[in-house]
Design goal:
sterol metabolism, disordered N terminus, two-stranded antiparallel ribbon, mainly alpha
């Protein structure tokens, strides 16, 4: 090649590292959005069940949606769902223990159905006292973890989520944002931590499945390149 010849500048290609980081960032955002809307949908449906049975009571001036629920409940639940769904696979990677138990969408859908059933039971099934209902829901929630998760990290995160969510709910009820009928655990129902535990496990399973799908897509792109 002669010294005077110059190469025509071609389109610059991103290196594999930059491409991977960009792809993961976009996929992370997409997973967060999907988890947010799943949480919003479940919050609308499940909160409607609680309100219809007069388990939760909102002040009349707070009611502001066609689902007869406070407007801030779905966004808060959606945000929490996104955080939980992204946190589970992140903890799995950090611990070096990828979750491979029942990793298919049919199992995730069954987990969601069981979670909805547990929440439905808390509002519809009548027990002689709240202790019996709480023990029953606790057994069902642990059964949900054992059937669809069985990981130590999943159980630990579920317990932590139940504790934090119950604490926040106690503070909200204490400040008069809304209230529970017949509270028997300070300001809330004693079975509420069971619902939060089951919800954490459910959203964790959805987040793990979405993360696994992302890994498959990235692996296929890398193989094609």
């Amino acid at each position: 090649m002669a010294e005077g010849d110059t190469e025509s500048p071609g389109p610059k290609k991103c290196g594999p590292y930059i491409s991977s980081v960009t792809s993961r960032s976009v996929n992370l955002m997409i997973r967060g959005v999907v988890l947010f809307f799943i949480g919003v949908f479940l919050a609308l449906v499940l909160n409607l069940l609680q309100i219809q049975r007069n388990v939760t009571l909102f002040p009349p001036d707070v009611i502001a949606s066609i689902f007869s629920s406070a407007w801030w409940v779905p966004p808060c639940c959606g945000t929490a769902s996104a955080v939980i769904g992204l946190l589970y696979p992140c903890i799995d990677r950090h611990l070096g223990e990828p979750h491979k138990f029942k990793r298919e969408w049919s199992s995730v859908m069954r987990c969601v159905a069981v979670f909805v059933g547990i929440n439905h039971a808390s509002a519809k099934v009548d027990f002689d006292n709240n202790i019996q209902l709480s023990l029953t829901l606790a057994a069902l929630s642990i059964g949900l973890w054992w059937t669809f998760d069985r990981s130590r990290s999943g159980f630990g995160l579920g317990v932590g989520i139940a504790f934090l969510a119950t604490l926040v709910t106690q503070l909200l009820v204490y400040n008069g944002v809304y209230q529970y009928t017949s509270p028997d655990f300070l300001y809330v129902r004693s079975w509420l931590p069971c619902i939060f535990f089951a919800g954490g496990i459910t959203m964790g399973n959805i987040g793990r499945q979405l993360a696994m799908y992302e890994c498959k897509v990235i692996a296929e792109k890398s193989h094609q390149e």
